[in-house]
């Protein structure tokens, strides 16, 4: 119920096994449901067949009912049921005068002529405050209407007994409380007060006319000044203005790239020519990887960028834009910012902020002209990376499993703040699933054992990779090395045996270049986290949220529970 009075979703009727509009109840053998309904009360109860499981239901701030299931050995809650499935089906989710876009991942937008009521709430993920008018109405005949096509009508229409579209429009204009009207085969409908539950749909839909102030209809159009002039004067003036505009366009586009208008939210759609010019014909390469090469570039406003030319990406334009727009809304201090993209013909490129301090890999293993990272910096970098990955796993609308966490994919900004990179090339997993089967492979030395076993990959694969990388941050050594006799040397096994089995101090595995200068408590926590993260069984590893809490000193990790093997 919305505001305790209006039904916005129903389970349907009980048929003895489950509710008619919740087919998941019948297909899931985990629960034994029963339903009681009489003149005094109606309620549902359920029992779990497996006593090693726990379940809970909740209604969250979006208005969705969600059911979670937890296996005792994994200690993780997995989402197994979500109703209504689309946020656009939640009554008044986008608030007054807000429109929910079913085409673009249930995003909320203000109607034309309106603006967000509270940007603060919107940035915190709560769009229910809706929108307010940019310009107050003049009332009666001074107002006008804007057409909104492909629309699912708002709630609470009021029928009007008029016989034409013109009369329907007049009926709305003559009442200052009327904010919209529609006229179709069923007649005239009027809407008074706040417009709630408007949806933009992909196919079909109806035409809705939104009432706005006159200035909103004419916005963007220059008013004509009526003066008696000759046809020749008008023609000459227009020709002159045309030549001036052409000259300005040629001058502005000679040897430079303009920054296109933002699209797909805050992202910029660059043309191939834009990025070719910005990168000086892709002349300065910053690095290469499995998905392509990265080049340095500079925009006309002197902003430095990194342009990634993708190789082997075969999505169509619509799918590519959709995935990029999903990536583009992700904002976190420890995740590299996506500025824009290029999708032109078969060319696919991503544009990121430029990171002047290169990758973590460079600082750990190729220091030559670089200053050695102190322990304090290393620890802060480790915490920052963990926060970034935890955000991808636990706080995004969609789970994002990175699939290739390693020092090369951790970039450092001017302040040596770590930024998780290449996360946009990972598999996007909808929140209603907790795992994904994928053919993507990581990098030898960082890959979790389940990659080679053929089982489903979960966020715990990233946890394993993080643990392997954390060993390298601690030691300054590569985890996997080939000895002269051809045998592999696995540093985590050696380190764990040295500290756990032999009882050596944890300082014995610290990077020798630090000369023992490290906080012992922090070093101990980092070592224990690294050991816990690389457990062979995925269910025995912590979540990235737990990793953050341990590194911040909010949780303890018991060294006795770890078992480190040399399996890769």
Automatic annotation (TrEMBL):
Alphabetically sorted, this entry's keywords are: ATP-binding, Cell membrane, Disulfide bond, Glycoprotein, Kinase, Lectin, Membrane, Nucleotide-binding, Phosphoprotein, Receptor, Serine/threonine-protein kinase, Signal, Transferase, Transmembrane, Transmembrane helix
GO molecular function of the protein, one example?
protein serine/threonine kinase activity
GO cellular component terms given for this protein: plasma membrane
Q: Where are the transmembrane segments?
A: 229-251
Enzymatic reactions = L-threonyl-[protein] + ATP = O-phospho-L-threonyl-[protein] + ADP + H(+); L-seryl-[protein] + ATP = O-phospho-L-seryl-[protein] + ADP + H(+)
Alphabetical list of PROSITE patterns matching this protein: PAN, PROTEIN_KINASE_ATP, PROTEIN_KINASE_DOM, PROTEIN_KINASE_ST
Domain Apple: start-end pairs: 139-213
**Alphabetically, which GO biological process terms does the record hold?**
recognition of pollen
One Pfam family named in its UniProt record:
Pkinase
Instruction: Give the record's membrane topology.
Output: Single-pass type I membrane protein
Q: Where is the Protein kinase domain?
A: 280-555
The record lists ATP as bound by: 309
Question: Which SMART domains does this entry report, sorted A to Z?
Answer: PAN_AP, S_TKc
Q: Does the keyword Glycoprotein apply?
A: yes
Q: Which domain of life is it from?
A: Eukaryota
As recorded in UniProt, its EC number(s) are: 2.7.11.1
Q: Which InterPro entries match?
A: Kinase-like_dom_sf (IPR011009), Pan_app (IPR003609), Prot_kinase_dom (IPR000719), Protein_kinase_ATP_BS (IPR017441), S_locus_glycoprot_dom (IPR000858), Ser/Thr_kinase_AS (IPR008271)
Location within or outside the cell: Cell membrane
User: Which positions carry the signal peptide feature in this UniProt record?
Assistant: none
| Enzyme class at the top of the EC tree | transferase
The protein's name in its UniProt record: non-specific serine/threonine protein kinase
Recorded source organism is Stephania yunnanensis
Read off the lineage from the record. Answer: Eukaryota, Viridiplantae, Streptophyta, Embryophyta, Tracheophyta
């Amino acid at each position: 119920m919305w505001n305790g009075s209006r039904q916005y979703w129903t389970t349907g009727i009980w048929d003895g096994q489950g509710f008619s509009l919740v087919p998941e109840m019948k297909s899931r053998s985990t629960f034994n449901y029963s339903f009681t309904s009489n003149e005094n009360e109606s309620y549902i109860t359920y029992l779990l067949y497996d006593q090693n499981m726990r379940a809970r239901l909740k209604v969250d701030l979006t208005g969705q009912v969600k059911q979670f299931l937890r296996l005792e050995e994994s200690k993780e809650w997995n989402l197994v049921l979500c109703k209504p499935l689309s946020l656009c089906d939640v009554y008044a989710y986008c608030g007054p005068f807000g429109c929910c876009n079913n085409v673009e991942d249930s995003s909320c937008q203000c109607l034309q002529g309106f603006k967000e009521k509270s940007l603060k709430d919107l940035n915190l993920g709560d769009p229910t405050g809706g929108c307010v008018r940019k310009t107050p109405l003049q009332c009666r005949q001074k107002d006008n209407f804007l057409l909104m096509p492909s629309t699912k009508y708002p709630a609470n229409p009021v029928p009007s007994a008029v016989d034409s579209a013109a009369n329907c429009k007049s009926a709305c204009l003559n009442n200052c409380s009327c904010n919209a009207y529609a006229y179709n085969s069923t007649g005239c409908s009027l809407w008074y007060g706040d417009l709630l539950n408007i949806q933009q749909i992909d196919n079909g839909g109806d035409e809705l006319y939104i009432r706005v102030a006159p200035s909103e209809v004419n916005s963007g159009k220059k008013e004509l000044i009526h003066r008696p002039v000759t046809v020749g004067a008008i023609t000459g003036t227009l020709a002159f203005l045309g030549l001036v505009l052409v000259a300005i366009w040629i001058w502005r586009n000679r040897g430079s790239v303009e920054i296109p208008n933002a699209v797909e939210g805050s992202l910029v759609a660059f043309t191939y020519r834009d990025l070719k010019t910005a990168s000086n014909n892709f002349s300065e390469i910053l690095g290469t990887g499995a998905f392509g090469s990265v080049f340095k570039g500079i925009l006309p406003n002197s902003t430095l960028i990194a342009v990634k030319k993708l190789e082997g990406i075969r999505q169509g334009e619509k799918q590519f834009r959709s995935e990029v727009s999903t990536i583009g809304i992700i904002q976190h201090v420890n995740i590299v910012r996506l500025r824009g993209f290029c999708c032109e013909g078969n060319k696919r490129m991503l544009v990121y902020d430029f990171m002047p301090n290169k990758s973590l890999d460079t600082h750990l293993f190729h220091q030559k002209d670089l200053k050695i990272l102190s322990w304090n910096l290393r620890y802060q970098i480790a915490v920052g990376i963990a926060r970034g990955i935890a955000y991808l796993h636990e706080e995004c609308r969609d789970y994002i499993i990175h699939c290739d966490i390693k020092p090369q994919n951790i970039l450092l900004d001017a302040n040596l703040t770590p930024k998780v990179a290449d996360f946009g090339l990972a598999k996007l997993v909808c929140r209603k699933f907790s795992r994904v089967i994928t053919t993507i492979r990581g990098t030898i030395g960082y890959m979790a054992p389940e990659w080679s076993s053929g089982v489903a990959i979960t966020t715990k694969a990233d946890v394993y990779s993080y643990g392997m990388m954390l060993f390298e941050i601690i030691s300054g050594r590569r985890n996997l090395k080939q000895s002269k006799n051809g045998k592999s040397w696995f540093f985590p096994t050696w380190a764990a045996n040295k500290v756990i089995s032999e009882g050596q101090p944890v300082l014995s595995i610290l990077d020798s270049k630090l000369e023992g200068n490290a906080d012992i408590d922090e070093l101990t926590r980092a070592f224990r986290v690294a050991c816990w993260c690389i457990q062979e069984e995925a269910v025995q590893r912590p979540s990235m949220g737990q990793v953050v809490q341990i590194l911040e000193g909010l949780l303890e990790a018991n060294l006795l529970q770890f078992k480190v093997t040399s399996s890769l």
